[in-house]
């Protein structure tokens, strides 16, 4: 199976290195990743500056081929699928990660990791975003998460990914024996409050630092946030289809009741 791996932590991050090493033992892995950290880049693309791409020596990580770009996570997947991978290199899956830190609740709208996988889904490829919900980021800290992803790919081989959808996976940063299982979850609400600390720099100028606090959520909630707090691996199917189709008829009734929408 061909797997395109990317991330938002950059080509040198331990998460993508370990994921590539482990997946490559069973699959053909191709890597296209940013040249630096692009966390919280969201689903942005490079359009005002040149997008530079360099192929690297795949080294000892087992990948078939490796590229680094000056672009965003979305750029990496888009150019990887559209230009870099040719013929029998085309990916069967796109896997984004392993991110250092969780991507839970509505924070996913800022996430480069999730947007990276969403770009794969937009291109019609089954895609998975994977995050390690931990402050630790040493090479060995990602080993279990990488093994879990490999097992997940095998397990869902018969799963028909809905169009416009991905799986968002969050793995607690615990020893394997301390993980309480897998939970299939809904996307939670906010993980952090929107608190800004007002500070003054040494030259007397005011600046602000985003310093949100964790928001409590019921431990029995069917959400990704609650699952990870209960030491479970959260798997959430999410979609970029944002249309609220159930509201179309009501809007039409209000705005176009005369049979014409030319009321302006």
Secondary-structure-derived class: alpha/beta
Measured on Cα atoms, how large is the radius of gyration? 20 Å
Question: Quick one: biggest sheet?
Answer: 9 strands, mixed
Helix content: 10-25%
Strand content: 15-25%
Our measurement of the CA-to-CA distance between the termini, rounded to an integer number of angstroms, reads: 55 Å
Please state the overall shape, judged from the principal axes of the Cα atoms.
globular
Please, what is the average pLDDT? Answer: 93
What's the arrangement of strands in the largest beta sheet? 3-4-2-1-5-6-7-11-8
Q: Give helix and strand order, one letter per element, not per position.
A: EHEEEHEHEHEEEEHEH
Low-pLDDT windows of residues: none
What's the total number of strands?
Answer: 11
In DSSP terms (H or I, runs of 4 or more residues), the helix count works out at 6
Q: How would you describe this structure in keywords?
A:
11 strands, 264 residues, 9-stranded mixed β-sheet, 6 helices, 24% strand, globular, alpha/beta
Tell me what you see in this structure.
With 264 residues, the protein is α/β, with parallel strands linked by helices. The chain is built from 6 helices and 11 strands. It has a 9-stranded mixed β-sheet, sandwiched between helices. A two-stranded antiparallel ribbon has the order 9-10. The longest helix is centred in the middle third of the chain and has 13 residues.
Question: How are the SSEs ordered, and which strands pair?
Answer:
Blueprint: E1 2-6, H1 14-23, E2 28-34, E3 53-56, E4 65-69, H2 73-84, E5 93-100, H3 112-122, E6 127-133, H4 143-155, E7 165-172, E8 182-184, E9 196-200, E10 206-210, H5 224-229, E11 233-239, H6 248-255
Parallel strand pairs: 1-2, 1-5, 2-4, 5-6, 6-7, 8-11
Antiparallel strand pairs: 3-4, 7-11, 9-10
């Amino acid at each position: 199976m061909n797997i395109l791996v990317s991330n938002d932590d950059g080509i040198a991050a331990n998460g993508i290195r370990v994921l590539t090493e482990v997946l490559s033992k069973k699959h053909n892995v191709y890597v296209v990743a940013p040249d630096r950290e692009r966390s919280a880049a969201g689903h942005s693309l490079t359009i005002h500056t040149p997008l530079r791409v360099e192929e690297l020596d795949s080294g000892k990580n087992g990948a078939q081929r490796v590229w680094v770009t000056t672009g965003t996570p979305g750029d990496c997947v888009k150019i990887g699928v559209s230009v870099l991978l040719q013929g029998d290199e085309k990916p069967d899956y796109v896997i984004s990660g392993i991110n250092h830190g969780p991507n839970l609740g509505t924070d996913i709208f800022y996430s480069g990791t999730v947007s990276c996988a969403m770009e794969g889904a937009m291109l019609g490829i089954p895609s998975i975003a994977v995050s390690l919900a931990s402050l630790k980021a040493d090479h060995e800290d990602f080993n279990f998460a990488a093994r879990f992803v490999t097992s997940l790919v095998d397990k869902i081989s018969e799963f028909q990914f809905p169009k416009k959808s991905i799986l968002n996976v969050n793995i607690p940063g615990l020893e394997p024996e301390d993980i309480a299982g897998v939970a299939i979850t809904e996307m939670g609400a906010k993980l952090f409050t929107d608190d800004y600390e007002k500070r003054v720099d040494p030259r007397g100028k005011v600046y602000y630092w985003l310093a949100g606090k964790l928001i409590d959520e019921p431990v029995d909630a069917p959400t990704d946030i609650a699952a990870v707090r209960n030491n479970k691996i959260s798997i959430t199917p999410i979609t970029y289809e944002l249309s609220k189709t159930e509201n179309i008829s009501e809007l039409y009734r209000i705005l176009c009741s005369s049979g014409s929408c030319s009321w302006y």
